[in-house]
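Tokens help. Our protein:
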Amino acid sequence: MNTLLVIDDAWSASRVLRAIDQGSHLLWQGDWHNGRQVIAAIKRRLRPGGSDFETYRRQRARQVQAVNAVLVPLDSTYSIGARRAPDVHQACLQAYGEPSTDRLVPLQELLGVIGAHQLRRRGVFIPALDARIHPYYGVFAPTRSEYVDLVADAPLPGRTAFDIGTGTGVLAAVIARRGLAVTATDISPSAVVCARDNLARLGLPVEVLRADLFPPGRADLIVCNPPWIPARPITTLDHAVYDEDGELLSRFLLGARKHLQPRGEIWLILSDLAEHLGLRSRADLPELIGRAGLEIAGGADVVPAQPRAQAARRGLSDPLADARAKEVTTLWRLVGT
């Protein structure tokens, strides 16, 4: 670690930023709520913008680096050493597991841990299930449920299904509710535990395995909602959205056919955001589908209604927001050639 400076309420956001730019990490020992305001001020001052996505990503990386330089002490009982700090024991237990030693953690990360705990407790209502899904820390939350509706409405082939990269288990739950025997996979241990918990809450007998893409055997239906932006992740949570060089998408499509039963279907749920950002052409996906020995049998589209897309339509000006204003998510129904 670089120079560690102890800071408190006397430090302004400008002074904090100057110290960060000089290579320092900062140990916050002031009031908890004042610390949150400093983080918010840094984020405002370093808000990503620019006229192109590469500039936006560079500025976003700088913002992440800056906010992560402000640390708070977290002791071996998950107590925070700051005035008026909340009780974060349960939130940290869910995110980090059993405590062991004192540590320093970024204040921004701890805010994310607290937010994830609140979301997990509250859950996300999924209309297609008429029930709530409870995301774990570090597992992508299905707050954009319109893609779930695509899976709920598409005509089903056969009796068995694989859900690849299941996350919270939301798509596995929808497919199981529709009567198929489902096996779900994820490479993330947290996602596997999260999906098992959600599916148990719903009383659905879905097998959830830790695997890099496919489980053993074949299925009549293989479903995947992969990360949709082929760029390098910056944060841990970015891995749910960013797939560097489209590596996961390529491996999924090129490997799916050998796990598919005759006359089965592959459902690829994918946003076209990468096209609007200039990271993938409209011809790239059909070309990859053809190289995988697959062809397009049909599909369905939906326009995302999440607040960020709505904000973009109201004129928010950065490349990602502009692209979200045009975004369409498609369920591609693929079959073997």
